[in-house]
Amino acid sequence: MQSFLQSKFVTTTSPLGSYCIGSSFGQRSCIPKRACIGTPVNGKWTPWSEWSQCSDPCVNGHRSRTRFCSNPRPSEGGFQCTGSDFEITSCDDISRCFHCRFWTKNVASFQSVQ
């Protein structure tokens, strides 16, 4: 690890004409604890998750998916990801719903069963 030299120099004017006691100049070596700020790393999104199952494929169904701002996470003053981490969409698919219509044998009326 690299070390540095820290210096101090004191100048004063005393209103009463006396001088400060001690040295007016000093140096010492020091090792910084940590660099102030490294290279900023902006956050990036992970790929979207798979869509969830449809809550109801026949009537007002919805499904969702998520992603995370961790590919990489923002650090060293970098920016957060922009945009949403959550998406939702409708998933009504009438073709997946079971509809069957038939005539009864003894009654001349039309019935519908779902």
From TrEMBL:
<protein>
    <recommendedName>
        <fullName>Thrombospondin type 1 domain-containing protein</fullName>
    </recommendedName>
</protein>
<dbReference type="InterPro" id="IPR036383">
    <property type="entry name" value="TSP1_rpt_sf"/>
</dbReference>
<keyword id="KW-1015">Disulfide bond</keyword>
<dbReference type="Pfam" id="PF00090">
    <property type="entry name" value="TSP_1"/>
</dbReference>
<dbReference type="InterPro" id="IPR000884">
    <property type="entry name" value="TSP1_rpt"/>
</dbReference>
<keyword id="KW-0677">Repeat</keyword>
<dbReference type="InterPro" id="IPR052065">
    <property type="entry name" value="Compl_asym_regulator"/>
</dbReference>
